[in-house]
Design goal:
- This protein has 153 residues and is of the alpha/beta class.
- It has 5 helices and 5 strands; from the N terminus they run βαββαββααα.
- It has a 3-stranded parallel sheet with strand order 3-4-5, with helices on both faces.
- Helix 2 links the parallel strand 3 (32-37) and strand 4 (51-59).
């Protein structure tokens, strides 16, 4: 997982699961299946350039205050089937970091294309994202091993 943030946030983002932290979206090497974007403007335009075919960009803010012209030609060729989605979350406080961490773990599960059940992987109950049997899953504390997912996202 790659994060885009100022240097002062590198340690926090690595603790949340980022493998790489870059200072701007222009430095991020894609393509990415999921991009969360809160800056807008040129940053959102650069995110569109880095989205994988069939991927999703989730806009949850416009801290730059800039508008982003978006057109069909930004998505083809090379980004066919990609989706631009908005998300509004009206809260603040200490739980926001936990929510962002949860979102990061969901993205990590999706990018790992793990056969592990997403509920356990995201909650951090599995010692390995590669677990493949319900019995192994239950030994690791999963109470819903019978619902284990083997689909590729």
């Amino acid at each position: 997982m790659t994060a885009v943030a100022a240097d002062r946030y590198v340690s926090d983002l690595r603790d949340l699961g980022a493998d790489e932290v870059v200072a701007s979206i222009e430095l991020a090497e894609g393509p990415f299946s999921l991009i969360t974007e809160s800056v807008g403007g040129e940053s959102l335009a650069h995110a569109i350039e880095r989205i994988a075919p069939g991927g999703t960009i989730v806009m949850f803010g416009t801290s730059s205050g800039e508008l982003t012209p978006v057109g069909f030609r930004q998505f083809v060729p090379g980004h066919e089937g990609a989706r631009l989605q908005s998300f509004a979350y009206y809260t603040s406080g200490p739980d926001v970091g936990a929510d962002i961490g949860f979102t990061a773990r969901v993205a990590r599960w999706r990018s790992a294309r793990s056969s592990c059940c997403p509920d356990c992987f995201v909650a951090g109950r599995c010692s390995s994202p590669e677990c493949t049997s319900a019995a192994q899953h239950q030994r690791q504390g999963c109470s819903h091993g019978d619902r284990m997912s083997t689909k590729t996202l």
